[in-house]
Amino acid sequence: MNQEWIVIDGLQYSNWSREIFDQMRLGGVNAVHVTVAYHENTRETLTRLGEWNQRFETDGDLIRPVFQPEDIVTAKAEGRVGIIFGAQNCSPIEDEIQLIGVLRRLGLMIMQLTYNNQSLLGAGCYESEDGGITRFGRQVIREMNRVGMLIDMSHSAERSTLEAIDFSEQPVIISHANPSEFRPALRNKSNKVLDAVAQSEGLLGFSLYPFHLKNGPDCSLEDFCDMVAWTAERMGIERIGLGSDLCQSQPQAVLEWMRNGRWSKQMDYGEGSASDSGWPDALSWFQDNRDFKGIADALSRKGFNDHELGLIMGGNWLNVLSRAATSSFETSNESGSA
Length: 338
Known about the structure:
By secondary structure, the protein is α/β, with parallel strands linked by helices. Helices cover 40% and strands 12% of the residues. The protein has a single domain (8-334), classed as Metal-dependent hydrolases (TIM Barrel, Alpha-Beta Barrel).
């Protein structure tokens, strides 16, 4: 893997440990977008952020927080891994728009408008009806644009996703999903969505979660590379990256929290199959952060040149984060307002 590349994984939610942080560094990963909330409210999200502060104290030789995109470049220069905070739901802001600016100040750089279900902002991808972006949702999109927080529609339904892209003045991303052309999972995205993301100069992060790949856990590295090549042709090389959705060493209880939260007494099968009620078997070619090099090597064999690989492995993530961060929020910070 070229040492000049900035390598960024666009989504992980692992059972964090020093061992995993060390694997990130050994794998040449410079930054990772980590989930700090699925269904957590504001107070609970603050606790998650506090837990990360403790990790920065304990393992500060391996990791550092990312508050602005340039912190990723600094992390690489220091030989540490930058940690990018993101929320997979809008639950941290509850029903208070002012909290968007507050959370951005605390380092939240990315937020999904929905997580599978209908939220106050839009429809999730598991809902049978998609009413699109709500009145509150439009206000939130405008505020996220203002403060430089990336809008993520990974778990959102199609109409809501397309309306968010249309309404946003900044790029909209899909941090961790795949084209439905290769696996018709509820969370995977149609060609119409892929085209809209590309048109907004956003980004699609390819998921390595087996349930969203061709042939599931039996997906071959060659099949994955075929999907990347097809998507690059459709969306453009500057609109794709990686969002592995790695949930390393997590217990079943965490999967149940992700899917059920507090809203259901029964396991939400999500994709519609009881066989998907547990963690999938890991891919043979992607077990942890040390395996990113194998993906880069396989994409090279597929025909991507060094410049293109640098974009896919993280350059495009850095670019989209940088564009979103360029907002009036920086000016308002100077005057002391949120």
